[in-house]
Write a structure and sequence with these properties.
The chain is α+β, with helices and mostly antiparallel strands. The protein has one domain: Alpha-Beta Complex (Creatine Amidinohydrolase), CATH 3.90.230. The chain has two helices and 13 strands. The strands form four sheets. The chain has a five-stranded antiparallel beta sheet with strand order 6-5-7-12-13. Helix 1 runs antiparallel to helix 2. The longest helix is centred in the middle third of the chain and has 20 residues. It is globular, with a radius of gyration of 16 Å.
């Protein structure tokens, strides 16, 4: 399963025959099933030389992913993960689509719990060893949180036409902290 989200597509871009052009910003979100278990990951990159703005947007999503993973330790709460992600996104002035974020992962691609991209520290589900989740920051360069759904009923775009970046890893929480299951 692969989604290809170009420029103003936040998530769930359906691959098309439209050729990529130098200067495009592309997020690839891919899932896999192995022996009945699911993994989910995403990466954003520029086609050709990135602009400074695109590179900052992409790097902020990667930094937020790392911060969210670092916050996913036994005894913490999902609000701590969301706060770590949201602090980076908002600190750069980026929009964060409300209601969109990570999720539980196991035998299905999208399971409970929902993993927010913004949150209040100390709130939400307590993180325990054995929890497997996908953490996936999504930032929108224009600063607006508004999104729109394409006619295909699947593709999510920035409402203002600004560019978006998406980063994701599936992690397992262990007694020793988070382990990235989708690391290259």
């Amino acid at each position: 399963m692969i989604c290809a989200s170009k420029n103003d597509v936040v998530v769930h871009g359906i691959p098309t025959d439209d050729p990529l052009q130098a200067g495009d910003l592309l997020s690839i979100d891919f899932g896999a099933i192995l022996d009945g278990w699911v993994g989910d990951a995403a990466v954003t990159f520029s086609i050709g030389q990135p602009t400074e703005d695109d590179d900052r947007l992409r790097q902020a999503a990667e930094d937020a992913l790392a911060a969210g993973i670092a916050a996913a330790v036994p005894g913490a709460r999902l609000g701590d993960v969301g706060a770590a992600i949201g602090t980076i996104g908002r600190g750069h002035g980026y929009g964060i689509p409300e209601g969109w974020g990570g999720h539980g992962v196991g035998r299905s691609m999208h399971e409970d719990p929902s993993v927010p991209n913004e949150g209040e520290p100390g709130r939400g589900l307590r993180i325990r060893p054995g929890l497997v989740i996908a953490i996936e920051p999504m930032f929108m360069a224009g600063g607006s949180d508004e999104i729109r759904l394409d006619e295909d009923g699947w593709t999510i775009r920035t409402a203002d036409g600004s560019r978006a970046s998406h980063a994701e890893h599936t992690i397992a929480v262990t007694d020793d902290g988070p382990v990235i299951l989708t690391a290259p």
